[in-house]
Amino acid sequence: MTDNILLLVEKCSHCLSYYDIDTGERLASIQLPDFPHEFVIDSQERYAYIGHYGVETSGHLGFGGTQIFQVDIARRELARTIDIAPFNRLHGMQMDAQDRLYALSEDRAQLVVLDHPATDTAPRRAVSTGGIKSHLFALTRDGQTAYAMNLLSHTVTKIRPHDATVAPVACAPGEKPEGYALSEDEKTLYVHAAGATRCAPSTRPPCRSSTRRRRATTPRACTCTATAAWWSPTTGPAACPSWTLRPCRRWPTCRWTPGPSR
Predict the structure, then answer these.
(1) 42-58 pLDDT, tens per residue?
(2) Domain of 67?
(3) Total of domains in the chain
């Protein structure tokens, strides 16, 4: 066994487990209420914070959970439970550079903040995402900007977690935006639209994916999973309502970039 340990939330086994990365051996498990899901670790690697989603998937009905499980990583035990009701179906979880904890209530479409999660017993603030069925979110390192992926309104919204007077600003990258990646310089957000199976037709030849050994073509309509790249700090939200499609260059990834505002 090495010191390389993987922490893994096993949603359908209802636990947080410790695995030896080299051998794959499960070293320990902490049993939790049904269907825990997303989790984050503080910068000191002292605590893990796990959101209680409380249902199996986003397609399942149910009120879900309202608790955040605080796990002592070194002791391998549940330190305490933070109940943040009425915020329920807790899914997306993030921490900023100051170790403030952010939890996203999918059902209420609200983002809550715990300034001192190691000791707080309730959120210090909450803001609306401006979307419906907010599932995941990206967060800047300073915690001042978040981007919520809203499954049912099919939007991505830019919000200010620490300033509720700033209204959310929305863009629509495709149906059911879910997966995302915020670039290292925080200037570009890439979004996977899970419900988008076709890109807009391109005037260029059909997209191709190629490796040294294989080559494949796709239909002329460019069947692929749309990925959105948007929201440059230099152009700001004014550029958001307009989009231009950069033709696929390597299937199955398409890249969307903000076009000139109309």
Answers:
(1) 999 999 999 999 888 88
(2) 1-100
(3) 2
